[in-house]
Amino acid sequence: MSRGWIFDLDGTLVDSLPGIGASLNAALASQGQDTHEPAQVRTFIGDGAEMLVRRALKNADEHTFAAVLQKFREHYAAHWQEGTEPYVGIQELLGKLRASGDCLAVLSNKPHPFTTTIVEVLFPNTFGWVVGQRRGIPHKPDPTGLWEILHAPSWSAKNAVLIGDSVMDLHTAQAAGIESIAVTWGYHNRNVLLDAKPTHLIEDVSELCDLLFVSTP
């Protein structure tokens, strides 16, 4: 039976920090709010657009929050390609997995329209299932979105693995009872990832490639 590989997007497949940071700072500046350096923006990423903006604003009122969130979404929709690119080796890895007949999916806390657009542009004809943050579907670590993928045709929880750069990804996999792979090239601390007890901890894309093909029957 083929394996199923479920990838997080930001910090796992793509380095999107420059694009997110530019759009966030443009939105903050439009409302007279303090902007942030990339290292600080990095700590805001992982829980969706609303939490990104709330962390950037800290104690701002709801009117300011709503205005910044709207400006962020508008700017990001227009400019995300200026600061988002696949990590080195990811395209080649996905090509090999696709050629092997394995099932591929993306599960992200990024809003669903952005998730699908980025995947379609950067990874055309690669993923059979793409699930982003949607109204009514709790974001990771709630496993609802993951179960949506696992219940799709050709998928089985017994043969599926979730790959991500955050503790949230690991907790999502654990909640669904599937294996997990933590990658250290993303936006989260290596020791924190270790403490969350992933099935595997991977340092670079070539090591991930070796692991996935060893794991494939």
What can you tell me about this protein's structure?
The chain is α/β, with parallel strands linked by helices and 217 residues long. It contains ten helices and eight strands. The strands form two sheets. Strands 5-4-1-6-7-8 form a six-stranded parallel β-sheet, with helices on both faces. Strands 2-3 form a two-stranded antiparallel ribbon. Helix 1 crosses helix 4 (62-79) and helix 3 (49-57) packs across helix 4 (62-79). The longest helix has 18 residues, at 62-79. The termini are close together. The mean pLDDT is 94.
What is the gyration radius calculated from CA atoms?
17 Å
Main sheet? 6 strands, parallel
CATH superfamily (homologous) name of the largest domain: HAD superfamily/HAD-like
CATH architecture of the largest domain: 3-Layer(aba) Sandwich
Write down the CATH class of the largest domain: Alpha Beta
Count of β-strands: 8
Tally the helices: 10
Strand content: 15-25%
Distance between the termini: 8 Å
Provide the low-confidence segments as ranges: none
Shape assignment: globular
